[in-house]
TrEMBL record:
GO terms for biological process: cellular detoxification of fluoride. It is a multi-pass membrane protein. One of its GO terms (cellular component) is plasma membrane. The keyword Transmembrane helix applies. Na(+) is not transported, but it plays an essential structural role and its presence is essential for fluoride channel function. One of its GO terms (molecular function) is fluoride channel activity. This is Fluoride-specific ion channel FluC.
Length: 124
């Protein structure tokens, strides 16, 4: 691992984590809408980024490290999603917990697929 690569991931990760925290605070709710939103949007953006890097070769390794691994890796979060599910279940909100899990498992891959498959067509 090169120091430059580590630096890019760290800088991107710091930005992504702060953005996720800010959005979660901006969307206060008993239901974790903020986390669901960042996971769906982040999955979509990562799909676009990866597609652009593979299909059109328009994205450098540095951008992939900074934005993909760093920013979007820290922006989207499985750990917060897991904690949200546990908190919903612990507070007796079993149906919202199930809905939240299904929404994340359905919408995140779907949004990544849409970003990967269809958005690059707009630029080709």
């Amino acid at each position: 691992m090169e120091p430059k690569s580590l630096f890019l991931v760290a800088i991107g990760g710091a930005f992504g984590a702060v953005a996720r925290y800010a959005i979660s605070e901006w969307v206060p709710s008993e239901f974790p809408w903020g986390t669901l939103g960042v996971n769906v949007v982040g999955s979509f953006l990562l799909g676009v980024l990866i597609a652009m890097s593979i299909i059109n070769e328009q994205v450098s390794l540095e951008i992939l490290l900074l934005v993909g691994t760093g920013a979007l890796g820290a922006f989207t979060t499985m750990s917060t999603f897991s904690l949200d599910v546990i908190q919903l279940i612990d507070s007796g909100k079993h149906m919202p917990a199930a809905g939240y899990m299904m929404a994340n498992f359905a919408l995140c891959p779907l949004s990544a697929f849409i970003g990967w498959r269809y958005i690059p067509m707009l630029f080709s």
